[in-house]
Every structure is written in C-alpha cells, then in structure tokens.
Amino acid sequence: MSAPTPWLSVVMPVHGGERWIDTTLASLAAEADSGIEVLVIDSSLTPATRAIAEGYADRLALRVVTRADLPGWPAKTNYGVAIARAAHVCWLHQDDLWLPGRAAAVRGWIAEAPDAVLHLAASAIVDGAGRVQGIWRCPFTEDGAVAADTVLERLLVQNFVSAPAPVFRRDAWAACGGLDEFLWYTADWDAWLKLAGEGAVRHHTAVTTAFRVHGHSLTVTGSRDAADFRAQMETVLDRHAARLGRRARSVRRASRASIAVNTALAAAAVGKPGGVLPALARVLALGPAGIHRYLRDSRIVERVMPRLRAKLAGGF
Fold it and tell me: Does residue 301 form part of some domain?
C-alpha cells in the first residue's frame, strides 16, 4: 500500500550542513505532523550531513536524496519541488528553523485560501546561537489578500521575503518555471515575483519561521564579488520592472537605490566600506516620497539591525 499523500512538502537543499541541520530537522520533528514530507536534497562532499538527516527517519516522513551533481541551492530546490508529492510546498535551508505552531498555522492558511498561489509571512531573525535578534516583516500590515500589483510594486524595490516563510502551490511553481539556476543569490526574489503573477497572494502576520544570520551564510560569502552581487539584483529588476507600466520609473529609482545600498553594505561587511556614503546619497536623492517608499519596502532597518545585534552579541 502506498503512503498517504502529504498535505505539505518541505524541500531542503543542503550542502555541508552538518553544523546546523540537526537543529533544523529537530524544529520540523517537534511539529509531530505525519502529513508533512521532508525532502533533503544533499550535495555534500562527505556523508556527515546525510547521516544526521537519516537519524530523523523515525520522526519525519523523510526522503534524503544525494545529488552531488546539483551543487547550487536553486538546482537542488527545483529538483526537490519536482519530486514533491504535496500540492503545497515550502523550502527550508539547512541553517533556518521552524518555530512552534508552524504546521498548524500553515494548515490554516491553506484551508482558508486553498486557491492562493503564494502565502507570504513574517520571520524571526536569529543568530548563530539561535537567539532572536529581530523580526523581518513584509510591508503589509494586515492578514489577508494582497493585490498582485501591490506585491509587484513593493517587492521590486527589495526582496522583503524571508526564504523559510512562504508557502506556494506546486502547480503554480511549475507554470512559472521555478527557480532560475543562474541566479545564485536572487533566484528566490525572481521566483516570488513570478509566482505573484500566477494568481492570488495572501499575507500572514504570524511569525512561524526563523532565518539565521551568521558569518558563513551565502549572502556573506557570495557577496565578495561586488559586481556579480549587484548584477544578480539588477537582472531581476530588469526582468520584471516592465510589468509595472507607468509606475515603473519611480519604482526603478527606489530599487536601484536599494541595490546600491545592498551592494555597499555587503562590501562593507568584507572590509570595503567605500560605497556606503554614495549609496546613502542615492537614497536621499529619491526625495521624501521616494525615501518613504524605500524605507517601507526595503525593510532595511529590520534586516540590518538584527545582524548588528548578532555581531555585538558574538553570535554572528
């Protein structure tokens, strides 16, 4: 007899994840929901990560697949979604977490709006020791439906989506082509923009996941090449801005200022602070309305302050 169809698939693209994955899988197992399948797609060079993951086989509906030929997280995620059995999917990176009550909350989201293609939500930001350093929210104040144009306009300024929080319909993912595997840094941003064009989007204020900041994250290690880092963001902006029509110009200006700030902060984090003041000047040049748009949509304070607190606390 075949196993019952899960109601949710959790895709975990992992590589060398032995430092974090035990805590991550424990947060899933704590939900004790047998209707959730967990797909670990592992490209690690050693068996250590797989061994830890397989230790959860008695507590999770778990499949561990070794795919050393898929080194990038976008490729592993695409593969995981392709083999997922549930109609709704989310992903969880090896260093992020579910918080207590996540499974029940997501069940409720799906029951309330089963046709929604994308559910967006807030996420806690935790440091390397798991201490909460802040909350990363979407630029919406209420629970419920969000107009596609509003999502597009605000999301183009900055990827305000914390990767472990969203839940999406697998058929919508297939329709929009999934992750662009060329985009090692902004593939998720591109995917949320594509999904938002496929149907209804819902927003939830509940905080049910945690995004971990630490010195070995992809953002920190990958941003050492500032030109490539900037190009990753500009590619997404150029790809989707035309969908805004007459509003494209003002949103483009705010987005390019946001890209300048992101690039400057990433360079400063690796000892190259020279771009910070010019980037701030670009924000100021937006004028009052543009500055308001940038601050609202970029979530810059919510994204940066927890990282600073983590460094000061010694948990980065």
Answer: yes
Which regions in the chain score pLDDT beneath 50? Answer: 222
Q: Is 60 helix (H, G, I), strand (E, B) or coil?
A: coil
- The CATH code of the domain that includes 23 is 3.90.550.10
Are the CB atoms for 155 and 189 separated by under 8 Å?
A: yes
Does residue 69 sit within a domain?
A: yes
Residues 6+ apart with CB under 8 A from 134: 124, 125, 302, 305, 306, 309
Select from 134, 40, 95, 75 the least CA-distant residue to 215: 95
Nearest to 195 by CA among 253, 135, 146, 235: 146
Of 65, 95, 125, the domain-final residue: 95
Per-residue model confidence (pLDDT) at position 311: 80
pTM above 0.85?
yes
* Inter-CA distances, 152 with 211, 223, 300, Å: 23, 25, 18
pLDDT, residue 222, reads: 47
Give residue 217's pLDDT. 58
What's the domain count of the chain?
A: 2
- Domain limits at 226? 218-312
Sign of the C-alpha dihedral computed for residues 306, 311, 315 and 316 taken in this order: positive
pLDDT per residue over 283-313, tens digit each? 999 999 999 999 999 999 999 998 888 887 7
| Residue that finishes a domain, picked among 58, 80, 95 | 95
